[in-house]
Predict the structure.
Amino acid sequence: MAKLAEPDDDQLLAAYAGGDSQAFRVLVERWQSRILNFLYRLVGDLHLAQDLRQEVFVRVARAAPTYLAQDKFSSWIYRIALRVAQTAMRKVGRERNRVVSLDAYENPDPDLNVTPLQVESDVPGPVAALEEAELARLLREGVEQLPDAERLVLVMRHYQDLNFREISEILDVPESTLKSRFYKAMERMRRYLRRVGVSERSWSDGH
């Protein structure tokens, strides 16, 4: 017997709008990790990102009855998350958001991938873990130093693995502009890595 296809995001949101609370739980489970990672890359604070993730899904729930299915769900939820993050950053100030909390490394959220890197080390155990955390910190600082527009595109392309067409739909910015910002961001990161003595092998755009 053929396995029934899982409902897509639009169907789940429509079901929730019709009173099916379980449909919303499935939707949250499907998206919570991606949204947390996106928010964390933007605001730089794990606990704040967790709070903002909750706010994103509150807004999704409130907007469910008026959601128009012709709008791609992924673009829609990323726009909500971006607005939530931008509001938070204006409220607390950019300088605070540039501080990376050690809690992100010592007590990571299971949905958060703070070190999406392969770090080669001949030293096993805790020392290797410290080296990986230090590398992640340096990369994080490099990303934080980018101009806002370039940093946003880098986060969406490199960490969220969205293509330029998808990013264009979310931000309503031409693909050519996004590509220019992305490659400028990558070049800034390469210069930064050379300056801090980190091998470019640790920073692979993979695209």
User: Anything to note?
Assistant: Confidence is low (pLDDT under 50) at residues 95-108, 114-123. The CA atoms of residues 72 and 107 lie 34 Å apart.
